[in-house]
Amino acid sequence: MNPTINFTPGPSQLYFTVEDHMRTAFREGIPSLSHRTKKFESIYQSTVEGLRALLGIPAGYHLYFTGSATEIWERIIQNLVEEKSFHLVNGAFSKRFFEVSQQLNRKPVKLEAAQGQGFDAHFKAPAGTELIALTHNETSTGVMLPLDFFRTVRTNHPNALLAVDAVSSLPFPEFDFSLLDSVFFSVQKGFGLPAGLGVWLVNDACVAKAEQLLSKGLSIGSYHTIPSLHTHALKYQTPETPNVLGIYLLGKVVEDMNRKGIHAIRHETEYKAAVLYQALSENAAISPLVKDKAFRSKTVIVADTGEHTERITKMLLEKGMQPGDGYGAAKKTQLRFANFPTHAKETFECLADMLVAYKP
Amino acid sequence: MNPTINFTPGPSQLYFTVEDHMRTAFREGIPSLSHRTKKFESIYQSTVEGLRALLGIPAGYHLYFTGSATEIWERIIQNLVEEKSFHLVNGAFSKRFFEVSQQLNRKPVKLEAAQGQGFDAHFKAPAGTELIALTHNETSTGVMLPLDFFRTVRTNHPNALLAVDAVSSLPFPEFDFSLLDSVFFSVQKGFGLPAGLGVWLVNDACVAKAEQLLSKGLSIGSYHTIPSLHTHALKYQTPETPNVLGIYLLGKVVEDMNRKGIHAIRHETEYKAAVLYQALSENAAISPLVKDKAFRSKTVIVADTGEHTERITKMLLEKGMQPGDGYGAAKKTQLRFANFPTHAKETFECLADMLVAYKP
After folding, report:
1. How far apart are CA A135 and CA B187, in angstroms?
2. Residue B56: other Cβ atoms inside 10 A
């Protein structure tokens, strides 16, 4: 394996147990296992049960697998929005979710915030909004919505479905799922797995909404509609031949994380984030992109490195650390650091020391 | 790895080099490689170039990656059919393609054949048919369309797009791509790879048709529309975070297959099929499901085993050979045998000997 420690926010550094699990997978015939076998069903089931335990997912919430989180943006709009979705947009990924709704010929409305900024939780979506699309952690800018944000949105919008993109935050956030209708992520970020699998959580209200659109004669897709995914998921099956190996590996990493304990993972994430933000504030040449502490991401920390970007990158690479580039136009003036469960505390301490010691 | 030889038609036995390639992948950091790197682009490019060489894919044909072949059914209807698709249906998978068109609120028409039967190539699709959906190899029944079938269909339908599901036949068939507009497959069958990746070939006529639908204001999807896939593919990129590891492994197996030579692979496939069909005709208790030799699949051979099914299965399993069950309702009366590049000649000879020696 590459000895460089990878801080890019996705695909990220592998969780440190993945290579061993892959060896076991080959020994057990998983890469060629048919998805129409009892053995596959038991893998699906144990992956789901592991995720329920890890994330505290309640009954009445269902878990489906897709090819990517990008696919889930599309499936959410297809299945849950007849016309009106409302999007909080503050970066490239939340913007893309909004655009998907446009491309599917819905009539989405957006509330925009400037780069590096959050939102006032007391916004009011237009009357008749069917779904509010929230990006918990905007990977491009490192803005994370605080958890009490969702309570305010829920209170002010009792009739809209709330869908939360948690791609680059889970397993860190302790969501109160009773406030949310759908949450989704992909496995190549916080879970440290090879890309090629999306995980979509929906509650009964989502199932009912999709069935309602279908009963109106609207098309909500074909194999990956909520009713199709749901019928199969009840039997721990999938409508199509899925990424069996990906589901197996996710189950194994979730097992490892449950063994470590979600509290320890959350605590370490908080600690590592604090260490890094402290370092960013100690060196005058560097500063956190997100000024408002309430919106600072704990899982993707973005540094405004300005004209020092290239030199800092070089310095880190020489020590075997690969920072993530700033996103898009910010490539030459910002650096992004993923803070995922696979990143050790010692590594973050070392990274922080180097950033503090950097001489402009 | 499981020592049983797996004849299930999908997911099938792994190609025998896959485990080695997986080890190399980990050594080279492929499982966490970002899809926005030059290294990924060069993997994508070499996979495409390898497939072009292996299958004889001409210029003017483009190659996109999806999550599954099931997804490609949906993308074909979304991107290439405003209203009228025409489907040749003779089993569970060709039927599913037809149903996808219904679910997307198009107005598909089908021509049906009984189980185990092919079609008269001189059928005439309704006037105004935009796309004819053909399943080259119906995996559920082992019916394979002969290659000259496509020439007749093309001649009789100069204005329709021809889309060919080659999921369980490639890399075996030597398609004349000038007769076809789109061909697609998934990697867990003939290519012997872990499931979770679909490969979609389209020609310029498909690109034009998708753009035409889009310019009419119709929705053709979001991230996996042909225009979006196409723009990215020109740079060897993908719209979403793809199954990077799957694309890498496909490229490596295709390299192995090119080293062996497609002529040798085709010749061996023909030979193994001949050996097995001969065996099926020699034992009075067993017979090929497909009576018309012109339509007998070379890659998924289905045996009518009637009341002997359970005993034959047991006999084969004792010798370390796992036959595929008959599909759906035929589970207790048929067996299916995949004849893919990973299956050795000697294995097929042994399988044939055992079937001939079976005593009712």
Report:
1. 33
2. 12
pLDDT at B10: 77
Is the pLDDT assigned to residue A91 strictly greater than 70?
Answer: yes
Cα–Cα dist B42/B281, whole Å: 49
CA end-to-end span of chain B: 33
- The answer to whether A272 and A348 are in contact (CB under 8 A) is yes
Distances (CA, A) of A164 to A88, A123, A177, B317, B335: 11, 16, 10, 48, 46
Domains in chain B (CATH in brackets) are 18-259 (3.40.640.10), 262-357 (3.90.1150.10)
- For residue A15, the number of C-alpha atoms closer than 13 Å in the C-beta half-sphere is 28
Cβ neighbours of B95 (radius 10 Å): 17
Q: Distance (Å, rounded) from C-alpha A19 to C-alpha A1?
A: 9
- Residue among A342, A238, A67 nearest B223 (CA): A67
At B242, phi and psi to the nearest 5? -90, -175
Per-residue pLDDT reduced to its tens digit, B230-282: 999 999 999 999 999 999 999 999 999 999 999 999 999 999 999 999 999 99
**Residue B225 DSSP class:** S
Closest approach of A28 to chain B, Cα-based (Å) = 6
Spell out which residues of chain A touch residue B192, defining contact as CB-CB under 8 Å. 32
A284 min Cα distance to partner chain B (Å): 31
Average pLDDT over residues A257-275: 98
Query: d(Cα A71, Cα A184) in Å, to the nearest integer?
Result: 10
Nearest-angstrom CA–CA distance, B343 and A328: 47
Distance CA A144, CA B68 (A): 33
Strand order in the sheet with A109-112: A61-66, A198-203, A182-186, A161-165, A131-135, A85-89, A109-112
**DSSP for A309-347, written as a single string:** HHHHHHHHHHTTEEPEEPSGGGGGTEEEEE--TTS-HHH
Q: Is A3 on the interface with B (CB under 8 A)?
A: no
| CA-derived radius of gyration, chain B | 20
Q: Where are the alpha helices (DSSP H) in A242-321?
A: 244-260, 262-282, 309-318
How far is the C-alpha of A297 from the C-alpha of A278, rounded, in Å? 14
Q: What is the ipTM of this complex?
A: 0.95
Strand ranges (E), chain A: 5-6, 61-66, 85-89, 109-112, 131-135, 137-138, 143-144, 161-165, 182-186, 198-203, 287-288, 300-304, 321-322, 324-325, 334-338
State how beta strands A143-144 and A137-138 pair: antiparallel
- What is the biggest distance separating any 2 CA atoms in chain A, rounded to whole angstroms? 65
Q: Which pLDDT tens digit goes with each residue over A168-177? A: 999 999 999 9
Contact B31 A8 (CB under 8 A): no
Subunit contact B70:A241, Cβ cutoff 8 A: yes
Q: How far is CA A123 from the centre of its chain?
A: 23
Sole residue written with tokens 């070499």: B46
B121: buried, middle or exposed (CB in 10 Å: 19+, 13-18, 0-12)? middle
Rg (CA), chain A: 20
pLDDT of B171 reads 98
Nearest-by-Cβ selection for B6 from A26, A32, A35: A32
Tokens 């797996």 sit on residue: B6
Distances from the Cα of A170 to the Cα of A63, B34, B218, angstroms:
15, 19, 35
CA angle A74/B215/A104 to nearest 5° reads 15
